[in-house]
Amino acid sequence: MFHWLEKHPFFFAVGVFLVIAFAGLVEILPNFAQASQPVVGTKPYTLLEMAGREVYIKNSCNACHSQLIRPFKAETDRYGHYSLSGEYAYDRPFLWGSKRIGPDLHRVGDYRTTDWHENHMKDPAGVVPGSIMPAYTWMFTNLADINTAYADQLTNAQFFNVPYNKPVPMKDGTTLTVPMAKSVAEANAMALEEAKTISADMKDKDVQDMVAAGKIPEIVALIAYLNSLK
Amino acid sequence: MDIFQLQGYAYFGLVTLMVVILYSYIYHLYSSEKKGTKDFEKYGNMALNDEIDDAPVEKISKDEKK
Amino acid sequence: MENRPLEYDYTVAKMFMLTTVLLGAVGMLIGVILASEMAFPGVNTMLGSLGLNEFTNFSRLRPLHTDSVIFGFTLSGIFATWYYVGQRVLKVSMAESKLLMFLGKMHFWLYILVVAAAVVSLFMGITSSKEYAEFEWPIDIAVVVVWVTWGLGIFGLIGIRRERSLYISIWYYIATFLGIAMLYLFNNMEIPTILATSPAGETGIGAWYHSVSMYSGTNDALVQWWYGHNAVAFGFTVPIVAMIYYFLPKESGQAVYSYKLSLLSFWGLMFVYLWAGGHHLLFSTVPDWMQTMGSVFSVVLILPSWGSAINMLLTMKGEWQQVATSPLIKFMVLASTFYMFSTLEGPIQAIKSVNAIAHFTDWIVGHVHDGTLGWVGFMIMAALFHMAPRVFKRELYSKSLMGTQFWIQTLGVVLYFTSMWIAGITQGMMWRAHDEYGNLAYSFIDTVTALHPYYTIRAVGGLLYLIGFFMFAYNIYKTMTSGRRVEESELQSASPMAA
Ligand code: HEM
Ligand code: HEM
Asked: Rounded to two decimals, what is the model's pTM?
């Protein structure tokens, strides 16, 4: 049998394929159903948060920051409760990262504020002396892509049944509904409302002027996202 | 039987199967060489005598090629 | 014309040799920039006056480094050697089939298009965020086309071969083709957002190239590292083993030490590798038993890996003087040594308690680069050195330059991985240190500033490696343009080199 395989490239290839494929099948498939159940308190991303998540991805923040707190004392002391599988149920893609050049951000919303992020993104070493993080100054002028974030929300709702406009259970026993716009125009108006609540806590004059003029710089969306990480 | 149990059995069965295949392959390699039905080491020469006009280690014959 | 003897046709191999050198230089240059940015953050904003900060900062550049060295340098090297080795061990020339020639050229030009699109999109920040799978769906589709073209070429060539059995290298190339095909397809499953419709009936909203991953959270991570680990397997191990099984015996004139062992290692590797992906997700939220399996199989993985490496070293048995005299053999012997080294280090890092310290630190980056610089980089350069005299019909330009390059780069690799080891372990220990009251002993920034000296050493090591790579490029260029012309008879085994 073996000898025969060596001389018949086609069946040989089939053999190789079977050998390498079966691990994947047994290993991955059965866990799919289970792992994607959200835990109580996990809610879908709002429009501005989604736009901010895209800014995070666009600049590969995940190259330096993890979003995965491992169950060790040292980690939970530093970053908070260890991460649970269900907390990521609405993360497409996942952003766990593989390297901590900077600290973990999975619960950064618990201990940093809008104000802190604003200063830090503009001049990291000014806020944390010795930091090697680059300054992300262009985020204060580039505009966030709200339309794409909206399309992202729609895709999540239509293809993956992410519960927008539906009540989701919260930890304190109440429910919360994350609204989703009905049209592009409504989406932009909604994002702007959200942006105003963020920029109200910011000091940068230009950012405030932009938001007042109906424009949303990337930094505002990014901070909305970072604040949502809890 | 829930899916995880099934997964466990599938995993165990497949690994056992692979191990059996791998070991019988080892057996095949060494026994067929001992019996003299096969010389595997000659294939090593495929890399050394690889000019286009060198004689192939094992020629492909027309009737065998489908 | 009709009576001209049949020859191997290296047109496509030459094209890919060119991209191997070019993309390697670009990718490693970016690597050195990244390394400097970590040591001296000011480098991030060096081009600030031109308004280019957005494109030169660490995080935007990092995917460009990984993708250009993996999908540029390494993949080109794999293609270049395939179009060379494939013909030779199957004993059939690409000139014998117009179709295969056409496919080969098409393969190259499509590849160039994809590379261009990938570079532009990554600079613009268009990325799916998944490591080594950053491209968005339009590029993913193009990648599939390139891959299928290559596959048709492989099986086409095999179909018209004169040699009945497939040499072990061919097995590894086939496995590379199939493995990557499967992994890439599954990991990049995504839904383009233009397919969504708003309740008001609007379609095609937002950026057309954007997409949403088919998998979410933990599942996404599981698939990604099943991919990530095996992309390493089928990109950095399997095809490189294919190369060394051909080039080392050929260059040294010694047949593989044990052909049977090579067959065994092949199946062993195929079987074990896929299970080991779990070691990237230890202590994460993926199921426990899977993490444990990831660990166990990672340790078992030493066997087939060392099977190949030892086979290579034993091939040199009784011929060790060649290592001393030929820089080309030196490159390959050091490559297999580094292969043994990183396949020993990898399983150690996969042990749960070790991984608890190593994960997220620079130790992993050290492991990555002793594998890639020492094993992948050295082997691909050696393969090109061996091919150059044969495809250009000229003598290698300078043996002494090769020798110097070898030592400079070896020093570079050693500086790189030793500094990253120390950095990684230092950082891992500092993160977990508690003082006598049970409080964390260090703030995060302490663990960053502590690494400055090691980052500096790494940048120097990387620079040395890059300098060596430029020497390599120069040597190949000079061989191509002004090496002494050689006869077929000089090309039997050891490559001709001018002092
Ligand atoms: C027996 C063989 C090997 C085993 C068991 C192994 C194991 C590992 C482990 C445990 C990690 C760290 C995962 C983490 O904690 O983040 C890792 C990362 C890595 N290894 Fe290996 N390794 C092996 C061989 C190699 C070789 C030969 C290369 C390349 C030439 C290589 C390239 C990489 C890369 C690129 C990563 C980084 C992935 C990432 O985080 O982005 N490995 N490997
Ligand atoms: C001149 C040579 C090189 C230098 C200076 C260099 C430098 C770097 C730096 C600074 C990083 C980022 C590490 C971090 O995030 O902390 C990196 C990542 C990486 N490099 Fe290189 N690199 C070089 C060559 C290569 C080559 C030749 C390859 C592959 C063939 C390679 C593959 C990678 C990979 C896979 C990663 C990601 C590692 C991970 O995610 O853990 N590099 N490199």
From this structure: 0.93
